[in-house]
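User: Reviewer 2 asked us to show a designed sequence for the structure in our supplementary figure. I'm pasting the structure tokens here. Could you produce the per-position amino acids so we can include them in the response letter?
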């Protein structure tokens, strides 16, 4: 068993050499480093390692196989001096700035401008009356980011357009030309042209405009064009004409022109210029002071003023001799503008014929020698004027009136001279009129007769129902010829427009549509329904309108409805109006309804009240051009149209009714 070692013998003091050559001794003497110092030490070690790796890589590249460094493979470059950078840096910056501007010029300025950014258009009315003043507003807009160096605008006005004022004035009032310089980006400008158009109804006037402009960033010019169309919706005047044809050669005759202003009119003065055909000449006359016109020269008349009142111009003329065929006479109506130029707004052509005859005949129907519209059921009143215009006696004269039409009621002919009826002709001889035995030179007379127009049992829509009338004569039993004929009058039957009016408490299905007591009672309100029905089958109608003025004590109670057009109440006029407008023949019937109310007053006791005084329907026949007017009869508190609510109509006291 081994013996334990004696620690006292084995232990020896450990001594550390403190000489300067001992690193460990130095380390022990130093204080413990901080964490920052450790990190810095580590970074130094890493940099030294990186530099050693780079050096080893370079040695591998430039050493030969024997580890000798090949100096000739090294290229040593000199660093750039300050003179180099002084010259190079400004040059580089200049090139960079030039390229930047070129890019800006190409990519920004050029791309910022587009012809679509320039707007050019006209505002104005699409329809005007002849002579009505209005404005054209010409708009030009630069919506781009580029200035326009020059902008040139030119307008071509319609031939019938009269320039009254322009703002800005441009190169002159009527020049239609403007020039603008340096129009800035995003600029909007306008030109206002005040004027009027003088021309016939329906004429279309076209304003043409062109815009030439040059952008500041482009040397090229661009052009835009525009146009605007305005139509003349009317002339604001009504004209009618009265004349006869044929006429006797060598005799004085007249063309009578009647005119008046519409409610909206802008032609307050005008002239009438008549162009005479061959063989026709005007007769010099001096109009009386009360005439609203003066004769400038034969065939030219200047009308001083126009009003709603109907006035007339008398154009006296004669034919030198017989015409071989009818000739056309043009009536030109013109207005002067502010510059003295005349503009035509209406041309009307009439046909005249001159015959050579010793016996003059003139036929008149319902007081007129011209064509006119008539109505079924109307009585036609004829006057046949005859006169010996020759220099010798006319013996054994026979006069005939020819009436061509299938719907004259011959059974109701009234003729005090009792002429003989043969087919559609009435014949008078010396047996019926003694004066026809011998007509001395200058002797004349008149034959009057009348008969009604009867309505056919079946009407054909759009058919022209006409009556053509003229007179002829013969002397000594000879056959009549074309020279022995009077003027011809054509009477066209107007459409069969009708208005039916009913005032009811119960409708046709016996359903109450009214309220309050019936019979009417003093102090109590009763409401009733008014029904209007328009029927029409023959011709298309325009401007169809129904109206009625409510009597005192009867009030509008709304609840209006219409199958066509619109119905409204005018508070100021106390008038109910139904405006239908156009009514084609395919619409045989249209209806409207509204309510009225009435509160009888004590003074109405024991009286019959008028609820509707009678309504009026007006329309223009598209075929005959005539204005048709029909009226209804008055409706009272009797409620004549309501079989259930019909009563005596007498207003009663509420206590009496109870």
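Assistant: Here is a per-position design you can include in the supplement:
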């Amino acid at each position: 068993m081994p013996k334990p070692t004696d620690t006292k013998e084995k232990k020896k003091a450990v001594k550390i050499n403190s000489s300067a050559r001992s690193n460990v001794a130095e380390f022990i003497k130093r204080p413990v480093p901080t964490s920052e110092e450790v990190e810095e030490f580590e970074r130094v070690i890493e940099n030294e390692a990186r530099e050693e790796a780079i050096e080893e890589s370079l040695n591998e590249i430039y050493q030969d196989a024997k580890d000798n460094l090949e100096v000739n493979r090294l290229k040593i470059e000199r660093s750039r001096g300050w003179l180099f950078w002084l010259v190079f840096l400004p040059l580089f910056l200049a090139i960079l700035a030039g390229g930047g501007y070129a890019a800006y010029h190409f990519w920004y300025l050029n791309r910022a401008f587009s012809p679509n950014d320039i707007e050019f258009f006209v505002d104005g009315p699409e329809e005007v009356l002849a002579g009505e003043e209005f404005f054209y507003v010409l708009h030009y807009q630069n919506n781009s980011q580029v200035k326009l160096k020059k902008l040139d605008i030119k307008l071509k006005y319609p031939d019938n357009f009269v320039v009254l004022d322009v703002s800005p004035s441009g190169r002159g009032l009527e020049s239609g030309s403007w020039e603008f310089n340096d129009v800035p980006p995003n600029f909007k400008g306008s030109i206002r042209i005040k004027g009027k158009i003088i021309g016939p109804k329906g004429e279309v006037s076209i304003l043409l405009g062109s815009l030439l402009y040059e952008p500041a960033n482009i040397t090229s010019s661009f052009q835009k064009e525009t146009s605007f169309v305005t139509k003349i919706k009317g002339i604001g005047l009504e004209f009618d004409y009265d004349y006869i044809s044929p006429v006797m050669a060598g005799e004085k005759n007249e063309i009578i022109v009647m005119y008046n202003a519409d409610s909206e009119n802008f032609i307050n003065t005008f002239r009438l210029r008549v162009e005479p055909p061959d063989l026709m000449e005007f007769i010099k006359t001096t109009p009386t002071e009360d005439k609203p016109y003066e004769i400038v020269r034969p065939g030219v008349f200047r009308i001083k003023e126009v009003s709603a009142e109907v006035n007339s111009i008398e154009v006296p003329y004669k034919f030198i001799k017989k015409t071989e065929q009818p000739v056309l006479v043009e009536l030109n109506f013109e207005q002067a503008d502010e510059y003295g130029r005349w503009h035509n707004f209406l041309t009307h052509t009439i046909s005249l014929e001159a015959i050579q005859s010793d016996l003059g005949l003139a036929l008149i129907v319902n007081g007129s020698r011209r064509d006119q519209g008539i109505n079924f059921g109307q009585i036609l009143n004829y006057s046949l004027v005859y006169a010996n215009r020759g220099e010798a006696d006319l013996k054994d004269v026979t006069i005939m009136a020819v009436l061509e039409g299938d719907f004259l009621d011959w059974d109701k002919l009234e003729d005090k001279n009792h002429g003989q009826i043969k087919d559609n002709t009435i014949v008078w001889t010396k047996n019926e009129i003694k004066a026809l035995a011998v007509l001395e030179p200058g002797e004349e007379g008149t034959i009057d007769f009348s008969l009604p127009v009867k309505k056919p049992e079946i009407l054909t829509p759009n058919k022209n129902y006409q009556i053509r009338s003229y007179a002829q004569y013969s002397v000594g039993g000879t056959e009549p010829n074309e020279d022995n004929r009077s003027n011809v009058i054509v009477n066209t039957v107007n459409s069969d427009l009708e208005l039916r009016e009913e005032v009811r408490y119960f409708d046709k299905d016996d359903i109450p549509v009214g309220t309050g007591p019936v019979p009417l009672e003093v102090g109590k309100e009763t409401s009733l329904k008014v029904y209007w029905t328009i029927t029409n089958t023959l011709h298309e109608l325009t401007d169809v309108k129904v109206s009625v003025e409510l009597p005192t004590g009867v009030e509008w109670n709304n609840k209006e409805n219409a199958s066509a057009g619109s119905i409204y109440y005018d508070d100021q006029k106390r008038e109910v109006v139904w405006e239908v407008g156009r009514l084609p023949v395919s619409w045989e019937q249209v209806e409207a309804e509204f309510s009225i109310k009435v509160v009888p007053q004590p003074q109405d006791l024991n009286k019959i009240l008028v609820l509707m005084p009678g309504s009026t329907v007006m329309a223009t026949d598209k075929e005959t051009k005539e204005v048709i007017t029909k009226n209804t009869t008055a409706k009272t508190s009797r409620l004549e149209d309501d079989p259930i609510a019909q009563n005596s109509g007498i207003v009663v006291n509420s206590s009496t009714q109870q």
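For the response letter, you might also mention the following. Helices lie at 7-10, 23-29, 35-62, 82-112, 654-657. The chain is about 10% helix and 40% strand.
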